[in-house]
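chain below, 285 aa
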Amino acid sequence: MRRRPPLRGRTVVITGAARGVGAQLARTLSARGARVALVGLEERELAYIATELVGETAYWHVDVTDADALLRTARSVEALFGTVDAVVANAGVATGGLFRHSDPEAWRRVVEVNLFGSVNTARAFLPALIRSRGYYLQIASLAALAPTPLMTAYCASKAAVEAFAHSLEAETAHHGVRTGVAYLSWTDTDMVRAPEQQAALGRLRADLPWPTGRTYPLAPAVDRIATGIERRARHVYAQPWLRAAQFLRATLPTLATRNARHAVAELESRPGAPVPAPAVAGPVV
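prediction:
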C-alpha cells in the first residue's frame, strides 16, 4: 500500500512568497501536493507565481509589518482552505555597509521586517496552528550562527528570529504545535546577487574559508526545506554543512573578525563614507 504524501491536502502559508526562496518553496510544496497560501508585498509577482503552481493556491497582498493586516489575512486563509497546517515565516530584507555610516531608517526597516514581521506572522497564525496541531518554520540564516561585518542589521535580526522560534516552541509544544528553524548559507536569490555588486562585501566573501563563501543553487536548498516541512523538523539545513556550523558557532564570531579585519580597515581608509545599500525584498541566506 502506497503511503500518502505527507503534504497532500495540507495548507501551507509562505510569507515573502513573491520571489527567491519563497517563490521556489511555493513551487516545490505545490508539486508535493500542498495547498499554498502566498503572502507578500509584490502583488504582480504573487499573481504570476500562483499561475505556476499545480495545486490549489491563492495569494494575499500584505506587508508583514502590518500586524492588523496579517490578522485579517490569517482569518481569510483559514476561511478559504478550512485549515492552516504549516506556516513558513520567510519574508526578509537586508542592507549592507558599515554600521557607523548606516542610515538609521534603513537599518531599522531590516529589523522591522525580519524580526517583527516574523513575530506578527506567528501571532496571526498561531491560533490556527493550535487548532490544526500544525508546524511553524522560521527562516533564519548562517548569519544567526556567524555574524558578518557590513550586515549588522541582518545578522541581528536573524539571530533574534532564531531565539524567538526556539522560545515559541517551548510555549506551544503542549498544544501539539511543532516549531522549526531553517538555516541557509549564501543561496542564489535576487538578494544575494545584489550585494555581490558591492566591492566591499564581495571582498569579504572572497576571504571567507570554504565552504562559507560560495553561492549555492536555489533548488536543492529549497528541496531540503520542503523535506523539513514534511518531517516537521526542529532544524532544517539548506546546505548540509551548516549542521556542523551549529557545533562550531561559539568560535565563528572570532573567525569572522579575523577574516574581515583587513578588508574592513581598507574600506574605512577610502575617501568618503560608504553609501548603505537599499533594502531588497527576499531572504539573503
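The longest strand covers residues 35-40. The longest helix spans residues 104-132.
thats it, cya
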